[in-house]
Design a protein that fits this description.
With 87 residues, this protein is mainly alpha-helical. It has 3 helices and no strands. Helix 1 crosses helix 2, helix 1 runs antiparallel to helix 3 and helix 2 crosses helix 3.
Amino acid sequence: MWIMKESIDYFFRVLNFLIIARIVLSWLSQNTYSTVNRIVYQLTEPILLPFRNLLLKIGLGGGMIDFSPILAVLALDVIRNFIYSML
């Protein structure tokens, strides 16, 4: 059971790291077609897109600041805690 909890925790930490890396890369990197940017984008877009669409539907999206990473990190934490409580 301990190994399963550690694996789940590691998985969610990696996802959070990738989301934060995407934020930092969007600030720093001018080359959006670099290999690192493409990989991070491909791994995080399926997570961020539903939150971006939700923000657009309620009228909070489309501005200069994308709040979908914040919502994604919060949702991932809720999901991780839910999975922990089930174990």
